[in-house]
Amino acid sequence: MRAMVYRGPYRVRVEEKAVPAIEHPDDAIVRVTRAAICGSDLHLYHGMMPDTRVGMTFGHEFIGEVYEVGPSVQNVRPGDRVMVPFNVFCGTCYYCARGLYSNCHNVNPNATAVGGIYGYSHTCGGYDGGQAEYVRVPFADVGPGLIPDWMDDDTAVLCTDALPTGYFGAQLGDIVEGDVVVVYGAGPVGLFAARSAWLMGAGRVIVVDHLDYRLAKAREFAHAETVMFTEHADLVRHLKHLTEGLGADVVIDAVGAEADGSVLQQVTAAKLKLQGGSPVALNWAIDTVRKGGTVSVIGAYGPLFSAVKFGDAMNKGLTLRMNQCPVKRQWPRLFEHIRNGYFKPSDVITHHVPLEHIAEGYHMFSAKLDNCIKPIVVPSEP
User: Fold this and answer.
1) Which of 47, 157, 235, 244 is deepest in the core (most CB within 10 A)?
2) Considering only CA atoms, which of 329, 352, 332 is closest in space to residue 35?
C-alpha cells in the first residue's frame, strides 16, 4: 500500500508499506477513504514531539471502509463505512468505564501521561495512522462507529477529531448564559470551539489569531469578533479593555505547543526543545480571563516542562480544565447539531490533497500558504 512516512523534521514522503495485518482477534483493517492533516500533526512534522520515529505514518483523523476483521469482532463487518475516533481505547478499563476514552489505561505503555492516539509518536502508543491506504484499528468493537447514511465523507472525517475537540473545549469552559468567551487560535479546532460557545449560551465570542484569512473565517463561520494580536503592543490590556476591565469569563486555548507571540518561547520550545511547547497562548489565557474564571485547554502540548504562569492562575482563583477529547462521547449530540443545521463542518475545509502529494500538503499547511485552513487527504481509488 501507499502511505505517508516520516523521515525527520520537515521531511515526509509517500512510500510503499505492507498492508497492515490482523494482530489481535479484536482488530479490524480499514481501507481509508478520507484522512486529514491536523494542526497537531504539525507538532510532529516540526520535530516537537518526543519519540517520533522515522518510518511512522501520521494521521489521527480518518474514515474508511472495513476491509477485514478479526475473529472476535462483532459490531462491524467488511464493507461497513466507518468513522474512527483519534483515541485508541479498550472500552473496559477504569477510565473507559467513566467515558474518559482519551485516558484509556490499556493501550499505551506511557499511559500514566496519555492514552493511545493513532499516528502520534510512540509517546502515544506507537500506532500507525490513517494517512495511508489502509490502517489497523484495534478494539474494533468499541472504537469505530458506523457513518450515518445521511453524512458525507468530508463531514464524517471532521467528526473524528476537529469538531468534537472544539465542542469539547467549549464544554470544558462550563459556559453559562451571557458569558464572554475568548478563543485563542482560529484554526479548525478554534473555529469549532467558537461556534460551539454560542450553542452553550455565550453572549459574546472573541477569536484571537495573527492571520487575516483565518480571522476572516472566524467572522464568517463562527460569527465571532476578532482580534489580530500582532496589532497590539499589549494584547492582554487590549482584551481587558474590550471586557470592561474584568477579562473574559471563559478562555479557550486552541493553539497548543507552537504558539507565536514570543521569540524567547519560540526559541526555547521549537528550536532548543527545552519546553513541551511554547506556552504563549496559555499564559495569555491565564492573563485575560477574569478572576474566578475558567481556562479550557485543548491545544496539544508535549510532556516536557513548560513555563506556565501557574502562580497567577492560583492567585486569580482560576479553574483550569483540559484533556484530549473523548471523541465518541461527543458524537450523539454533535450528530443532532449537524442534522439540525447548527454545524456544517465541511465549511472549514479549504483543500483536498491526493495522498501522493501529501509532502506538498504538509508544506502548504505548515507555511500557511494558499489560505489553507483544513486540508483533507484523499487516497487514490483501489
Assistant:
1) 157
2) 352
* Angle value at C-alpha 103, between 100 and 106, nearest 5 degrees: 115
Per-residue pLDDT reduced to its tens digit, 16-69? 999 999 999 999 999 999 999 999 999 899 988 888 999 999 999 999 999 999
Q: What tens digit of pLDDT does each residue of 224-252 get? A: 999 999 999 999 999 999 999 999 999 99
Considering the four listed CATH numbers 3.90.180.10, 2.60.40.1240, 3.30.230.10, 3.40.190.10, the one that applies to the domain covering 2-161+326-378 is: 3.90.180.10
Query: Whose grid coordinates read 490502517?
Result: 135
In the three-class reduction of DSSP (H, G, I as helix; E, B as strand; rest coil), residue 97 is classed as helix
The listed CATH number (1.10.10.10, 3.40.50.720, 3.90.830.10, 3.90.110.10) that belongs to domain 165-322: 3.40.50.720
Query: How many whole angstroms separate alpha carbon 89 and alpha carbon 222?
Result: 31
